[in-house]
Amino acid sequence: MNNLERFLIEAKKQTYANANIEKIQSTRLNSNDYEYKKDNMVYHGTKFIGEEVVYINNKTCWAMNYHGVTLDESLGEVAMDKALRPALMMVGKDNIIPVRGPKEFVNGEYKYKFDVDGDLNYFNGTETVYKNNIKIFELKCSGGLVE
Description:
This protein is α+β, with helices and mostly antiparallel strands. The chain has one domain (2-145). The chain is 17% helix and 47% strand. Strands 1-2-3-4-8-7-6-5 form an eight-stranded antiparallel sheet, with helices on one face. A hairpin with a 2-residue loop joins strand 5 and strand 6. It is globular, with a radius of gyration of 15 Å.
């Protein structure tokens, strides 16, 4: 479990949270896919109704599904660059499971919150981004070990 946790933290920082990372060719229309490999582990993430999957020795080990809704379309990439991506780069910095970002992150007028129940075996979470205390984005996620 410790190897999985460390791998997830590293993979998340090397995919969507990293604005400079290269995307791979998507298998779905209008989607972005990301991939990270290290040793015998592979992480595959998609955006935006999506999933993340970790494979160990080509066998599915862990997965997460998610869906997010932008409540103020005028903010788009600005909110992602000011609140979401910096928060996601902080994955693993506090005592919650490393499936999204930290419990809370503030960057100027933007505030990120992530509430999650469970552990890497099985979890459900809600991520929210606020601008000036007005909710502008919400994401629901769930996942865990796959046998």
